[in-house]
Amino acid sequence: GPAPADPESRTDSHCPYCALQCAMTLGSSGTVGARDFPTNGGGLCQKGWTAGTLLGSPARLTTPLVREDGELRPASWDTALDLVAARLRRLRRDHGPDAVAVFGGGGLTNEKSYLLGKFARVALGTSQIDYNGRFCMSSAAAAGTRAFGLDRGLPFPLTDVGEADVVVLVGANPAETMPPFVRHLHGARTRGGLVVVDPRRTPTAQLATLRLAPAPGTDLALALGILHATVEAGRVDESFVEQRTTGFDAVWRVAAAYWPERVERLTGVAAADQRRVATMLAGARRAYVLTARGAEQHASGVDTVSAWINLALAHGLPGRPGSGYGCLTGQGNGQGGREHGQKADQLPGYRRITDPAAREHVARVWGVAPASLPGPGRSAYELLDALGTEDGPKALLVFGSNPAVSAPHAAHVVERLAALDLLVTADLVLSETSALADVVFPVTQWAEETGTMTNLEGRVLLRRRALPPPRDVRTDLAVLAALARRLGQPAARFPAEAEEVFAELRAASRGGPADYSGVSYDRLRAGEALYWPVPDDDHPGTPRLFVDGFAHPDGLARFAAVDHTGPAETPDDEFPLVATTGRVLAQYQSGAQTRAIPELHDTAPTVVVEVHPDTAVGAGLADGDEARVVSRRGAVRARVRTEPSMRPDVVFLPFHFPGEQRANLLTNPALDPTSRMPEFKVCAVRLLPSGGV
Ligand code: SF4
Question: How many CB atoms lie within 10 A of CB 637?
Answer without folding.
Answer: 18
